[in-house]
From TrEMBL:
Gene coding for it: hisC
Keyword Amino-acid biosynthesis part of the UniProt annotation: yes
Source organism (scientific name): Deefgea piscis
UniProt protein name: Histidinol-phosphate aminotransferase
Record-linked SUPFAM superfamilies: PLP-dependent transferases
Transmembrane segments: none
Length: 366
């Protein structure tokens, strides 16, 4: 007997999440100066954190010997005000990843199934499998969610449908009307998790009014994060909005102090920093233009993206990835998503995008 056999079979079967390579790790491996490395691998905000969030963190440092507010009173009050929901409709997480796991924890057990799309965010199969439940992976339609097929895939054992909108890593976007139709036709005892990690980047016309839908659909859970447009990935904070009954269940499996005090203070301040949010969107739009223009010029095909990243096709992605790493550019391989011929690049600052494009050009001339 080895220690491995102590873990349940469904845990041993999990393939761990592969995060983007940290700058320090690449610097060590390649003997590069970290200051010259461009990391466009984890969809982080290239502007860093906003000034209001930074000021809030600096102020909060004085109280770090204390436990954080386990109920996140101020952050929930701010979220409630901003999104017009009751505090009882909010659960906070150590990143939205934590929230996704709380949902799986509270509602899934062995024998249950959960539906997600091919190429959808990798955390959905992981969170499902970690509970001993079974994932139902529905073939993608043009790299996006095939909502009709996902509805058809729902079984009597299905407890959750996971939807990322926009989806990571493909950047595909479902139309609001199609999502409403999905919710109308979905059995009311199936939870629909709408993960909107990139919603702030969308133009108003393309954004789903998903929070308003909560009134109509008590089985809907809307998940948001501070990691992307708000620029707080390192602090780890996200939240879910849902009916008070669902939130009550999520709170039962939540660690009492799952969101640290720096994260709570920063997120509360970030929600008031409209200027920073707009700057983030502007930088993203310009960078998306810069990178996709280069793809077109170089004849590289890519998936039109509504997020702060874009997936492009490149033949042997492993080789191109290695070529880029050796030159200090970190992008995201997608072999784990079943896309061995594609890479995902996050939108950076103009100079970072330019460096990525330069190395891509070199690779094509090589
Ligand atoms: C980045 C991302 C998240 C999670 O981010 P956290 O940092 O855990 O808040 C969730 N869903 C999708 C689709 C993402 O791309």
């Amino acid at each position: 007997m080895t220690m491995l056999t102590l873990a349940p079979e469904y845990i041993r079967a999990i393939a761990p999440y592969q995060p983007g390579k940290p700058v320090a790790e690449l610097a060590r491996e390649m003997g590069l100066d970290p200051a010259t490395i461009v990391k466009l691998a984890s969809n982080e905000n290239p502007l860093g954190m906003g000034p209001k969030a930074r000021a809030a963190v600096e102020k909060e440092i004085a109280d770090l010997a204390r436990y954080p507010d386990g109920n996140g009173f101020e952050l929930k009050a701010k979220i409630a005000e901003k999104y017009q929901v009751a505090s009882e409709q909010i659960v906070l997480g150590n990143g939205s990843n934590d929230v996704l796991e709380l949902i799986a924890h509270a509602f899934l057990q062995a024998g249950d199934t959960a539906v997600y799309a091919e190429y959808a965010f990798a955390v959905y199969p992981l969170a499902t499998q970690a509970m001993g439940a079974t994932g139902i992976c529905v073939k993608a339609l043009d790299y996006g969610h095939d909502l009709d097929a996902m509805r058809a895939a729902i079984l009597p054992s299905t407890k959750i449908v996971w939807i990322a909108n926009p989806n990571n890593p493909t950047g595909t976007l479902a139309r609001p009307g199609d999502l409403i139709e999905f919710l109308e036709l979905c059995p009311s005892h199936v939870l629909v998790v709408l993960d909107e990690a990139y919603t702030e980047f969308l133009p108003a016309a393309k954004r789903s009014d998903s929070i308003a839908w909560l009134k109509r659909f008590p089985n809907l859970i809307v998940v948001r994060t501070f990691s992307k447009a708000f620029g707080l990935a390192g602090l780890r904070v996200g939240f879910a909005l849902a009916s008070p009954e669902i939130i009550d269940m999520l709170n039962r499996v939540r660690q009492a102090f799952n969101v640290n005090s720096l994260a709570q203070a920063a997120a509360t301040a970030a929600l008031d920093d409209e200027e920073f949010l707009q700057a983030s969107v502007r930088v993203n739009n310009q960078g998306m233009q810069q990178i996709t223009d280069a793809f077109r010029q170089l004849g590289i095909s890519f998936i039109e993206s509504a997020g702060n990243f874009v997936t492009f096709h490149c033949g042997d992605a492993r080789m191109l990835n290695q070529f880029m790493l050796e030159r200090g550019v970190i992008v995201r391989p997608l072999a784990g998503y079943g896309m061995p011929n594609s890479l995902r690049v996050s939108i950076g600052l103009p100079a970072e995008n330019a460096r990525f494009i330069e190395v891509l050009q070199q690779a094509m001339n090589d």
